[in-house]
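Researcher: I've been going back and forth with a colleague about how NADH dehydrogenase might be arranged in three dimensions. Neither of us has a model we trust, so I'd like an independent prediction. The organism is Pelagibacter ubique, in case that matters for your notes. Sequence below.
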Amino acid sequence: MLTLLKKIFIWWNQETLGTKLKTLFYGRLVGSDSFGNKYYESKDGKRWVIYGGEIDASKIPNEWYSWIHFTKNKIEMMHQFKKYDWQKPHQSNQTGTENAYHPNKNNEQIKKKYSSWKS
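Model: Here is an independent structure prediction for NADH dehydrogenase. You can compare it with whatever you and your colleague have in mind.
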């Protein structure tokens, strides 16, 4: 019973009941990505994503980002989603986590390019 109530009211955990019904009746599965996200399109051209796991918009890889935003990307059309050896796998936004980028300070004060007029 609690699971059903979560499906109806709590949209931030997973898809809601309304999204599930819309996907079931009107959605056509277009594809999925390595994160488990599934991409759907309706007959009238609307597009949406059902996230696999935690809902985070930065989990959409760039090959699907342009599709869901109706952006024609000539580079992607030429390469047909071909991944090269030098390309890193897509990562979601790491801000606020342990994996966030921090410049190397070496435990020293950053040298200023100016000096304060107050001493």
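Researcher: What would you highlight for our discussion?
Model: I'd start with this: Helices lie at 2-9, 17-26, 62-68, 74-79. After that, consider the following. Residues 17-26 form the longest helix (10 residues).
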